[in-house]
Design a protein that fits this description.
The protein has 411 residues and is of the alpha+beta class. Helices cover 18% and strands 42% of the residues. The chain has a nine-stranded antiparallel sheet, with no helix packed on it. β10 and β11 form a beta hairpin. The longest helix is centred in the last third of the chain and has 19 residues. It is globular, with a radius of gyration of 24 Å. The N and C termini lie far apart (92 Å).
């Protein structure tokens, strides 16, 4: 009798397990710990698959940030997540044990890069299956310096809740978007992925309280070392999230084709007497995705006040047909109602040729502000996206203040 009673809890656990993702299930629905295997190491991220009206919906999860795949398909036991605006996709077979195995197809300057993809169901941790008590509280701002070929100073912004760690890295060239992971003892690690672009940041807590580690991008071949210390009030520790540059010229001029091949010029009548924001970016650039997600609806709201915008797109590919296809997909994803122009290749030479008056472009995105009289009034370099929290709010407030001032001026 006692042996029979002892089996009851075990049978209950087995029944609960059977209500999860049974072997051979025909549905991929559920949460996963997904991993892309890269030359520099693993890139883990959260993946959640649900169903809406009988149609699968896949969402990439980075902490509180959720990125829904532009298209999700599940056919013949294969789950496919498409991101046309990046020209990337994730494709995996659902195995009898409920795991996923396949390939991440990522797009880079060299073309398509394929990397092994796997996903385990029901796993919540990202880096550390066993998590020791944290050796320190990491929340706050840190001054970070990379040690690669082109050293760069930035801000490491961290928020720690127990072992859970979230944040981003804000450089003058842009932010690393929504990073999430864990801290275990004196080690910590964070990662992010959006369907095409991603990065991993691993670190150690030193005895003196400073941090050191390395990072790598979604297709990096070699990790880049970095160090960080608590930010203080000294001028040397201050980092501008978005640089404001003085325009080198009073006016600029350009004419480039739109996605239908029609030439569009800043001198066209539709822009006369308007405040024009010229957004310089590319569909490959993750910060450009963040910027246009904010800019497109902003311009729609304020068009009646005399605001217009033009997007100058510098793409990886020299083929104008492919560039036009990518830019169309980009515009569709973010519902852009202003012209996006094919300006050239995303190289120093390409941007100098396209915009010689300002010496080309070094950072994507770069934003130009043209007043009602056609004068170049300001240049903002870089972007602080939503992951940067307060820095993002400050950035959009500065943007809005400048636009308000320009709209208030007479033509």
């Amino acid at each position: 009798m006692m042996r029979t009673l002892a089996l009851v809890p075990l049978l209950g656990l087995l029944l609960l397990a059977a209500c999860g993702k049974p072997a051979g299930t025909a549905s991929p629905a559920g949460p996963y710990r997904a991993v892309i295997s890269l030359p520099s190491g693993e890139l883990p991220f959260g993946l959640e698959v649900t169903e809406k009206n009988g149609v699968p919906v896949a969402t990439i999860v980075n902490g509180d940030n959720r990125v829904q795949a532009e298209q999700t398909r599940f056919q013949n036991g294969r789950l496919t997540l498409d991101f046309p605006s990046y020209d990337s996709s994730l494709d995996a077979e659902l195995k009898p044990d409920g795991t996923l195995a396949g390939t991440a197809h990522l797009y880079r300057r060299s073309g398509r890069v394929d990397a092994p993809l796997s996903a385990m169901p029901g796993i919540a941790w990202r880096f550390f299956e066993r998590q020791d008590p944290p050796a320190a509280k990491l929340s706050g701002r840190w001054l970070i310096e990379t040690q690669g070929e082109k050293p760069e100073k930035g801000l490491l912004l961290l928020d720690q809740n127990g072992n859970r760690l979230t944040g981003t890295v804000q450089f003058p060239s842009g932010d690393e978007r929504f990073l999430t992971g864990e801290v275990s003892g004196a080690q910590f690690a964070l990662s992010t992925f959006d369907g095409n672009q991603g990065s991993v940041w691993k670190g150690n807590i030193r005895r003196d309280g400073s941090l050191s580690g390395d990072s790598y991008g979604a297709t990096s071949k070699v990790p880049e070392a970095w160090t960080a210390k608590r930010q203080d009030a000294s001028p040397a520790d201050q980092v501008a999230a978005i640089a404001e540059e003085k325009p080198p010229v009073d006016r600029i001029a350009f004419t480039f084709p739109d996605v239908d091949g029609k030439p569009v010029s800043l001198a066209d009548p539709r822009f006369k007497g308007k405040v024009v924001i010229v957004s310089i970016g590319g569909t490959w650039c993750p910060n450009c995705h963040d910027e246009i997600a904010y800019l497109a609806p902003y311009v729609d709201r304020r068009r009646a006040e005399g605001l217009e915008a033009i997007g100058l797109q510098f793409e990886y590919d020299a083929d104008p047909v492919r560039s036009a296809r990518q830019i169309k997909r980009f515009a569709e994803r973010y519902r852009v109602h202003y012209p996006l122009l094919i300006a050239g290749e995303a190289t120093p030479e390409g941007t100098k040729k396209a915009l010689p008056a300002i010496g080309g472009v070094r950072v994507y995105p770069t934003t130009l502000f043209i007043d009602r009289r056609g004068r170049l009034r300001a240049i903002h370099v870089g972007y602080a996206g939503p992951a940067a929290g307060a820095l993002h709010e400050q950035a959009i407030q500065r943007f809005d203040t400048l636009v308000n001032a320009l709209l208030a001026e007479k033509a």
